[in-house]
TrEMBL record:
GO molecular function, one term: dTDP-4-dehydrorhamnose 3,5-epimerase activity
Site (Participates in a stacking interaction with the thymidine ring of dTDP-4-oxo-6-deoxyglucose): Y138
Protein known as: dTDP-4-dehydrorhamnose 3,5-epimerase
Source lineage: Bacteria, Pseudomonadati, Pseudomonadota, Candidatius Mariprofundia, Mariprofundales
Organism: Mariprofundus ferrooxydans PV-1
Origin superkingdom: Bacteria
């Protein structure tokens, strides 16, 4: 697995080595040893799977507050999505900057999103499916969210949004006094 850094510290893209033969292909999706430089003392405690039907549908932007802040590793196992991380760490040099990458069942890329970063994605192909590996368990009381279309962040989404949850459309907009998340 090759780990590619991005301009946002801790946000990385892992390239998966796919071994092909006449039967098809094999790839190692997760390896604690290979990902030790990223995981440190963290462990995967929950794996989630989402299916999203409509191209243009958008989920996010989500994160969890301390003490259940989480690192997420996200893979697309069917279809194609535009996957985005936003740096909400007040002391980070890339505070309020975002990074996006196309994840697909074809390119086998995995996005690593550290604690203090919000995550969201837009579906580019119908019936796309994601697998999320989480280092903290789901804790509704620690859920945080921000708007995918917040002008302060100005994320470039490839398609017009065709479907979004009431919760995700209702996150408050950030203002110039926003001081980020505490970790
Ligand atoms: C995360 C989670 C959710 N739920 C329940 C809560 C809701 O009743 C339902 C859907 O949850 P939510 O609308 O938060 O799911 P998404 O909007 O698809 O959020 C997902 O996509 C965005 C982009 C992410 O980054 C989140 O980590 C990921 O969970 O599942 C659970 O029961 N367990 C869980 O671990």
């Amino acid at each position: 697995m090759n780990l590619l850094p991005t301009k946002i510290a801790g946000v990385q893209v892992a390239e998966t080595i796919r071994i092909a033969d006449q039967r098809g292909a094999f790839a190692r999706f997760f390896c604690e040893n290979e990902l030790a430089p990223v995981l440190g003392e963290r462990h995967i405690v929950q794996i989630n799977h989402s299916r999203t039907s409509q191209p243009g549908a958008l989920r996010g932007m989500h994160y969890q507050h301390a003490p259940h802040a989480e690192m997420k590793m996200v893979r697309c196992i069917k279809g194609r999505v535009w996957d985005v991380a936003v740096d909400l760490r007040r002391d980070s040099p890339t505070f309020l900057q975002w990074h996006g990458v196309e994840l697909s069942a074809e390119n086998d890329l995995m996005m690593v999103i550290p604690e203090g970063c919000a995550h969201g994605f837009q579906v580019l192909e119908a019936e796309s499916e994601l697998l999320y590996l989480h280092t903290a368990r789901y804790t509704p009381t620690c859920e945080g969210g921000m708007r995918h279309d917040d002008p302060l962040i100005d994320i470039a989404w490839p398609l017009a949004v065709t479907d979004i949850s009431d919760r995700d459309r209702s996150h408050p907009l950030l203002d110039e006094h926003y001081s980020g998340v505490k970790l």
